[in-house]
Write a structure and sequence with these properties.
This protein has 323 residues and is mainly alpha-helical. Helices cover 72% and strands 0% of the residues. The mean pLDDT is 81.
Length: 323
């Protein structure tokens, strides 16, 4: 089952880069071909098919984008889909750094919040436009001067412009990296959930006696109507994540439920963002909503990517699906 899951994940990645009319037919054909190659490699090695052999077969077969290009050459894309996470990470860091460097002027009363937003807050998003241009040129360079597959050496053009592409591609267990990342962030999620219950009260116990924490008090309307649903959604998502981590079968069985909770959580946060104040203190509320807007945009993109991946999964005929 593990070897077939690795192959299925690879097939779905290839299908994601194909036109809709070709996806399922090519996916079924490719799955059959790779399964046969895996069994042939296992016979030559004198052992049963395992994950190591499956990974070796896929590495020799080629990167998903290269395989997809054999069936349908892909046109130019401003930001290649496989590099979208790098783009989002770099863009978010650039905006956060500019805000972090310039916001102290607001807290020290050297600049009003309105002046800061017009001068530094809004202009931070120009980094996004700059990075779109950078990644677009890098994509052109990558296609025009590809990396030598045998030596792995990059052409001089890559070093001059610093094409931000990852190194050697390695197939692996489906979504293993994403799943481990989710588990690694679970403790942080638990701490944030606890802190989110009553930040002003918790800070009062953590900070020196007499420290003013009124700036962290929630708005009365938000606390009365939206705080409890948000805490419940956050806690339930953590429980399901822990349950899926302890039992791999639960991971697949609860996938739809976990996705539904994720969508519900994001929807409630949008409601909180647009429905009025979250914090009673105006400056705290403004800064938190600015961060929340970025958080929601990133999560919205991730939800759309999840839906797209689910929609393009190759549907195997029943006899093949049981193999």
């Amino acid at each position: 089952m593990e070897t077939q899951a690795i192959i299925d994940d690879y097939v779905n990645k290839v299908a994601a880069k194909l036109p809709r009319r070709l996806r399922n037919d090519v996916g079924v054909e490719l799955r059959t071909l790779l399964t046969e190659q895996l069994w042939s490699a296992a016979q030559e090695a004198g052992r049963s098919p395992d994950s190591t052999l499956a990974v070796d077969v896929l590495r020799r077969f080629g990167r998903p984008d290269e395989v997809a290009a054999r069936y349908a050459p892909r046109g130019f894309q401003l930001i290649e889909p496989e590099y979208a996470p790098v783009f989002v990470t770099v863009a978010t860091c650039c905006v956060a750094i500019q805000w972090g460097v310039t916001l102290p002027a607001v807290f020290s009363s050297r600049m009003t919040l309105g002046d800061w937003w017009l001068r530094w807050g809004l202009s931070a998003f120009s980094w996004v436009g700059f990075l779109v241009l950078w990644f677009g040129i890098a994509s052109w360079i990558q296609r025009r001067f590809p990396v030598d597959p045998d030596s792995g050496r990059r052409p001089w053009t890559h070093w001059i412009f610093w094409v931000p592409f990852p190194g050697e591609w390695r197939p692996g267990e489906p979504a293993a990296t994403e799943w481990r990342a989710g588990l690694n962030t679970a403790p942080l999620g638990a701490v944030l959930t606890f802190f989110f219950v009553a930040p002003a009260s918790i800070l009062r116990h953590l900070l020196p006696a007499g420290t003013d924490t009124s700036w962290a008090l929630y708005d009365g309307r938000f606390q009365r109507w939206l705080l409890a649903p948000l805490i419940a959604l956050m806690a339930l998502r953590l429980v399901l994540l822990a349950a899926a981590a302890l039992n791999e079968r639960r991971r697949a069985r609860t996938e739809a439920l976990r996705f539904g909770l994720w969508v519900g959580f994001v929807a409630v946060l949008y409601w909180a963002l647009l429905g009025g104040r979250i914090f009673a203190h105006v400056l705290t509320d403004t800064l938190f909503k600015a961060w929340l807007l970025i958080f929601l945009l990133v999560n919205t993109i991730q939800i759309l990517v999840w839906i797209r991946r689910a929609a393009i999964r190759v549907r195997m005929p029943e006899p093949l699906a049981r193999r």
